[in-house]
From TrEMBL:
Name of the protein in question: Uncharacterized protein
Length: 36
């Protein structure tokens, strides 16, 4: 992996974390849906 590829991974992880956080806030049964 080249040095220019790592920042992209960090941005993707941050984006996915932010989306999942928003979904968790908007969906009361988020954990219940994951357990199904």
């Amino acid at each position: 992996m080249n040095a220019g590829f790592m920042p992209d991974i960090k941005h993707i992880v941050a984006y996915v974390w932010r989306v999942s956080y928003i979904l968790r806030c908007r969906t009361p049964n988020f954990r219940s849906a994951l357990n199904q």
